[in-house]
């Protein structure tokens, strides 16, 4: 059992980083054990809250939180997907210039979460938000290939002008000769829009 997150600082006696590593390892082991034993695992948020209380910028949480919650043993739910989104949004606040967090958030909203949502209008809104986040990740330095996926999602959602804006940024970022193929592909997509 874990103490409440606020009291955890006192319980670690200043060894916050070591406690975070132990909590993370414990979470992964418990997650795997619950999967192998086909048992439900609803304590994931307790671990995550404890870790983030001690180290709010802990990158592995934001890299795997969507998987841990959406695909938790035995079955992720609509609530789990909403909770994962809140954690990822916290990650974007804590790590505002980390393109990996923005890309993870965008891909989660665009591709994973909609399959868990019951409301089709909500799923479409999440896809659009995801595409915008993916586009922002490209602006921060993520792989420019992802701009094409984001542009497709935005175009399908009826946000053609936003898709053009992201593609124009990606086009400018890919002028280096090593990225000639992606640059040309983005140019063709821009011309088509």
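Sequence proposed for the structure above (193 residues):
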């Amino acid at each position: 059992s874990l103490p409440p997150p606020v009291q955890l600082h006192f319980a670690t006696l200043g060894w916050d980083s070591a406690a975070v590593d132990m909590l993370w390892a414990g979470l992964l082991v418990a997650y795997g054990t619950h999967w192998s034993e086909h048992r439900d695992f609803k304590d994931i948020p307790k671990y995550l809250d404890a870790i983030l209380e001690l180290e709010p910028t802990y990158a592995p949480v934001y890299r795997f939180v969507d998987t841990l919650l959406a695909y938790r043993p035995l079955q992720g739910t609509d609530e789990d997907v909403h909770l994962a989104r809140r954690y990822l949004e916290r990650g974007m606040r804590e790590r505002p210039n980390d393109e990996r967090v923005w890309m993870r958030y965008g891909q989660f909203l665009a591709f994973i979460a909609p399959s868990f949502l019951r409301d089709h209008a909500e799923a479409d809104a999440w896809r659009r938000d995801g595409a915008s986040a993916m586009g922002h990740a490209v602006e921060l330095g993520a792989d420019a290939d992802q701009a094409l996926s984001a542009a497709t999602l935005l175009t399908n959602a009826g946000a053609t002008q936003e898709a053009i804006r992201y593609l124009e940024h990606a086009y400018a970022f890919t002028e280096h000769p090593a990225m000639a193929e992606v640059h040309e592909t983005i140019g063709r997509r821009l011309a088509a829009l």
